[in-house]
Amino acid sequence: MPSDSIEQLRAAVRDVPDFPKPGIIFKDITPILQDGALFRAAIDLFRERCRGLEIDKIVCIDARGFLFGSAVAYELGIGLVPIRKRGKLPYKTERAAYTLEYGEAEMEMHVDSVTPGERIVLIDDLLATGGTSASAVTLIKKVGGELVEAQFLIELAFLHGREKLQSEQVVSFLTY
Ligand code: AMP
Where does the Phosphoribosyltransferase domain start and stop, copy by copy (predicted)? Predict the structure, then answer.
């Protein structure tokens, strides 16, 4: 794949300054989603990366992680598990707190969403400071999953999110 695809995807990511608050440059992936060939190219990157990893389930993070994770799980013919912000999942959950710029928030995962020992790939759109995905890793382990690797379409390397996922395998396709 194509370094061509990587460059086309990179060119499509739109920087939106001062969203959702002043000083943040938001990486908008909707131009990728709305172009059939680019959306497919993005899903193909994840799918090819997953090939041979013998994964049982994809776990993806509320909300943009769902957009990529669900298509990858469909392509691989394996199950999909959502991690959601507190209060959204209807059944019994495990919880993990994570740090936001101001204060804390919590993520949840259904207690029975993973069978102990299942091999998991975690998918989200973007790795920034790593707090969100670190809480997702905590949840996957709490429910007994074995994290094979965490995959992101985009990594903001200058925020050093990898450091929060130190003992995990981390893969990203577009690095800024
Ligand atoms: P973090 O916990 O700091 O790694 O933030 C990662 C989560 O926040 C991901 O689910 C992203 O969708 C979102 N996010 C954080 N920063 C940005 C950004 N600059 N542009 C787009 N999404 C972001």
Answer: 32-154
